[in-house]
Amino acid sequence: MKVSIFKILGFVLSLFFYHCQASPHYKFVVKEVPYTRLCSTKNILTINGQYPGPTLYVHKGDTIVVDVYNRGNYNITIHWHGVKQPGNPWTDGPEYITQCPIAPGAKFRQKIILTTEEGTLWWHAHSQWLRATVYGAMIIYPKLGTSYPFAKPDAEIPILLGDWWIQDIVEVVDELLLSGGEGNYSNAFTINGQPGDLYPCSKQDTFRLKVERGLTYLLRIINSAVQDMLFFSIAGHNVTLVGSDASYLKPLERSFFVISPGQTFDVLLEANQSPNHYYMAAKSYTVAAQGVFDNTTTTAIVEYSGNYTPSSPPLFPYLPEFNDTYAAANFTGSFRSLADKEHPIDVPMEINTYLFHTLSMNTVPCPTNSCSGPNGNKFLASVNNISFVNPEIDILEAYYYCIPGVFGTWFPDFPPLFYNFTADDLPGYLELPTLGTEVKILEYNSTVELVFQGTNLFQGSDHPMHLHGFSFYVVGVGLGNFDNEIDPLKYNLVDPPLSNTIIVPSNGWLAIRFKADNPGVWYMHCHFDRHMLWGMDAVFIVKNGESPEAKMSLPPSDMPSCYKAVPITSKVANSLGPDICPIYVEKK
Length: 588
Ligand SMILES: *[C@@H]1O[C@H](CO)[C@@H](O)[C@H](O)[C@H]1NC(C)=O
Ligand SMILES: *[C@@H]1O[C@H](CO)[C@@H](O)[C@H](O)[C@H]1NC(C)=O
Ligand SMILES: *[C@@H]1O[C@H](CO)[C@@H](O)[C@H](O)[C@H]1NC(C)=O
Ligand SMILES: *[C@@H]1O[C@H](CO)[C@@H](O)[C@H](O)[C@H]1NC(C)=O
Ligand SMILES: *[C@@H]1O[C@H](CO)[C@@H](O)[C@H](O)[C@H]1NC(C)=O
Ligand SMILES: *[C@@H]1O[C@H](CO)[C@@H](O)[C@H](O)[C@H]1NC(C)=O
Ligand SMILES: *[C@@H]1O[C@H](CO)[C@@H](O)[C@H](O)[C@H]1NC(C)=O
Ligand SMILES: *[C@@H]1O[C@H](CO)[C@@H](O)[C@H](O)[C@H]1NC(C)=O
Ligand SMILES: *[C@@H]1O[C@H](CO)[C@@H](O)[C@H](O)[C@H]1NC(C)=O
Ligand SMILES: [Cu+2]
What we know:
Immunoglobulin-like, six-stranded mixed β-sheet, 5 helices
C-alpha cells in the first residue's frame, strides 16, 4: 500500500490546525455516577463522570462550543460563569431566566463567546443546587504571542474549593423548600473534590501539590461551594494575588485570603521555604458564627520534592476566626486593577442611571406557625423588597417573542422605603417582602451606577453578588449605611478592580459601575444558593442598540423552550409595548 507524502503532510497539517483552530469543541455528558466521600457512597450528577468536572482550556478572545447532552434524571442548565457572551444571552444558562432547563434525554449546543476575559473563570450548573457537583474550571490563557503581566509561572494548577453533602443535594433542596427553614448544611469542604486529612475516610485521597524549591506556581483558585465564603491559607508561605474574575490586579501579597462563592483568583505561590510538607487549608467565613454552619476545615498538602523527613502532621496555617469581618473586608477592599498602558481601565465617569438595591433577609408567616424558620415563619430574601419568583416561561424567551404575562417591567430603582438599613432593632413587620417577577429595563449603552446596601432585616449577612453578562468596576465599599453625600467623594475611579462577583459586607454597602453595552437578558443574584432560592435575585434587560453589533443574536435552533407548556391565546398583544420588544416573530 502506497501512502503519498501529501497524505502524511496533510495529516500533520490537520493535527497542527486541530490544535490552533479558534473554535475548540467540547462534549459534556451529564450523567449520574457513584462517588464515595466521608465513608458513604451516593450517586451524584457529573459531567462525563468527572467530579470536579473537566477543565476547559481556551485563549483570550476564543469562541468555543460545548455540546451538552443530558443523560441524567434531572432538568439541568449549564452557565459559563464570568463570560460576558456579547449579544448572546441564549446560551448563558440560568434556568427560567435565559432558557428552560435541558430535559433528561435532550441536548443543547452552547456557544461561549470570550472577549476581554483573561485568567480564570469556571462553569457550573445553574438549576436548583445541582452545581454542588456539576462544576469545573475554565483557564483562559493570554492570546498566542502575548504574555502574562508577571513572570511566566513554572506550572499552573487549578484549585477548586467546594463542599460535600452526605445527603442527596436534591433532597436537601426539597427539604428546605418544604420546611421553610434553612435546611441542612454541607458536611465538608473540599479541595479539588477531596475533603482532606481532617475528615473520616478521606486521608488516603487528600489532594497533593508536588512542588520544587525555587519554582513559582500559578494557582487558579475557584470557590465553587454552594453556600460558604472561605478563608484560605498555605502554611509557611505568603501568596500573591495577581488576578480575580479573569481580570488582572496589582499584586497583593497575603498570608491568607477570603474568597466568596463565584469568585476566582489567580494566585502566585513561590516554593521558597525549606523542603517540607505544608497544609493548604480552607474554612468558612461567616458572620453567623454563633448559629449553625459548616465549621469544618478542608486541607490539601504542598509537598516539596527532595530527600528530607517531613513534619508529621504537616505544618498547619493560620486561619482567622470564622467571623473575622475585619480580615475579610480588609482583603477584598485592597483589590486594585493593574490600570497600566497594556491594561487600561474604562470606568464610566458620566452616570445616567443610578440604582440603589437593598439586600435583605425576609420572613413570611406560615399557617399555624408550621415552618422551621424563626418563630415558625418561612425564610425568604429580597432585592428592594421584591422576592424574585421564577416564571414558568424563561424571561429571555418571553422578551424575544413578546409573550405577555410572564414578567413585569417595574423593578424599582430604589427601595420602597428608606429606613436605618443597618439598625440593631428593626421592626418585624418590615421583614415581609413582596413577591414578584419584575425586570429592570436598561437602554443600550446606558452608564449605570448600582449601590448595594445590606440591611439588618432579620439578620445582617454578607452577600456575594454576581452579575451575568458584564464585568463591573467596584468603585466603593464601606460598613453601615451608604451616605449619598460623602461616600461618592471617596470612590476609586483610578484603579478600581473589575469583577463579576463581589462580597457586599454584612450591614455594609458596595458601589459598582458598568456600561450596559451588552444587549440581552442578564441575571443578577446572590451567589449563596440558599439566598438565591429565597429570592435575592433580579433581572436586567438591556435593549438592542441601533447598529447591527448592538443587537442580540438569533436564538440557536435547539434552544430548550418552555413555550409549548403554555397556550398562547394572542399572537403579539403584549403588555410590554413595542418599545421593549426587539423583534416580533411568530414562533413555530
Ligand atoms: C423540567 O422542566 C420542565 C420545563 O420547564 C418543567 O415543565 C418540569 O416541571 C421540570 N421538571 C422538574 C422535575 O422540575
Ligand atoms: C440532614 O442530614 C441528615 C444526615 O446527614 C439527615 O439525617 C437529616 O434528615 C437531614 N435533614 C435535616 C432537616 O436535618
Ligand atoms: C507575608 O505577608 C504579610 C502581609 O500580609 C507580611 O506582614 C509578612 O511579613 C509576609 N511574610 C513573609 C514571610 O514574607
Ligand atoms: C463545630 O460545631 C460543633 C457543634 O455545632 C462543635 O461541637 C464543634 O466544637 C465546632 N468545631 C469548631 C472547630 O468550632
Ligand atoms: C465573633 O464571635 C464571637 C463569639 O463566637 C464573639 O465574641 C465576637 O464578638 C465575634 N466577632 C465579631 C467581629 O463579630
Ligand atoms: C488593611 O489593613 C492595613 C493594615 O492594618 C491598613 O493599612 C489598610 O488600610 C487596610 N485596608 C483596607 C482596605 O481596609
Ligand atoms: C442606624 O443604626 C446604627 C446601628 O444601630 C446606629 O449606629 C446609627 O446611629 C443609626 N443611624 C441613624 C441615622 O439613626
Ligand atoms: C415590603 O413590602 C411589604 C408588602 O408590601 C411591606 O409589608 C413591608 O413593610 C415592606 N418592607 C420594606 C422593608 O420595604
Ligand atoms: C455606545 O458606546 C460606544 C463606546 O462608547 C460608542 O462607540 C457607540 O457609538 C455607542 N452606541 C450608541 C448606540 O450609543
Ligand atoms: Cu446573599
